[in-house]
């Protein structure tokens, strides 16, 4: 894991970055690796890949963060990327893999109300995706909206949103 993270930091080659992120994502699917990756500063290394302009690299980084987000301690570190993820979802092509990866991460991050306030400004986008997206996009947007609607403080924002 340490060598993969070092490789990810030391290369600008998008193909190598993508493969390293896929491998990290696969490793992050196992809870035994969550603490290890976090303790190796892996969340910030992976999170830096979100500023990459290449959608496939961003998508793979989002998938890795999504797998890591199943851990409360990891969520505390991942939360710093929520606003950026919301912006990426809004600017991504409709129904793209990048958009779906971002929505999946937000679904996990919105299970508790801890980070709902960071997603409020994107509620009109989520409603738009629910209306205009394909079935996969609609399901993911709906999951985020259902999680947000469980918070009475957010319900008002959902009901007042302009789509």
Task: Please provide a written account of the structure.
The chain has 163 residues and is an all-alpha fold. It is 71% helix and 0% strand. It contains eleven helices and no strands. It has helices spanning 2-10, 14-28, 34-39, 42-48, 55-68, 72-78, 82-91, 97-109, 123-132, 135-149, 152-160. Helix 1 packs antiparallel against helix 2 and helix 7 packs antiparallel against helix 8 (97-109). It is a single-pass membrane protein. This is ARM10 protein. Belongs to the eutherian X-chromosome-specific Armcx family. It comes from Nothocercus julius.
**Could you give the distance between the termini?**
43 Å
Indicate the overall shape.
Answer: globular
Could you give a short account of the major beta sheet? none
Report the sheet-strand fraction: under 5%
Helix percentage range: over 70%
Note poorly predicted spans. none
Structural class: mainly alpha
Membrane topology: Single-pass membrane protein
Protein name: ARM10 protein
Keywords: Membrane, Mitochondrion, Mitochondrion outer membrane, Signal-anchor, Transmembrane, Transmembrane helix
Main location: mitochondrion
List keywords for this structure.
membrane, single chain, mitochondrion outer membrane, signal-anchor, 163 residues, 71% helix, 11 helices, Leucine-rich Repeat Variant, mitochondrion, mainly alpha
Structure summarized in a few sentences:
With 163 residues, the chain is mainly α. It has eleven helices and no strands. Belongs to the eutherian X-chromosome-specific Armcx family.
């Amino acid at each position: 894991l340490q060598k993969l993270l070092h490789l990810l930091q030391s290369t600008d080659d998008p193909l190598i970055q993508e493969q390293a992120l896929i491998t990290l994502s696969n490793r992050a699917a196992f809870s035994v690796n969550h603490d290890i990756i976090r303790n190796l500063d892996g969340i910030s290394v992976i999170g830096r890949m979100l500023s990459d302009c290449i959608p496939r690299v961003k998508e793979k980084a989002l998938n890795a963060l999504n797998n890591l987000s199943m851990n409360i301690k990891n969520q505390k570190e991942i939360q710093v990327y929520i606003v950026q993820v919301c912006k990426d979802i809004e600017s991504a092509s409709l129904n793209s893999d990048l958009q779906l990866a971002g929505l999946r991460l937000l679904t996990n991050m919105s299970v508790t109300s801890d980070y709902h306030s960071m997603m409020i400004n994107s509620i009109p986008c989520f409603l738009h995706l629910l209306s205009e997206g394909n079935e996969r996009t609609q399901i993911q947007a709906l999951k985020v909206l259902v999680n947000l609607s469980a918070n009475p403080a957010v319900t008002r924002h959902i009901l007042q949103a302009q789509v």
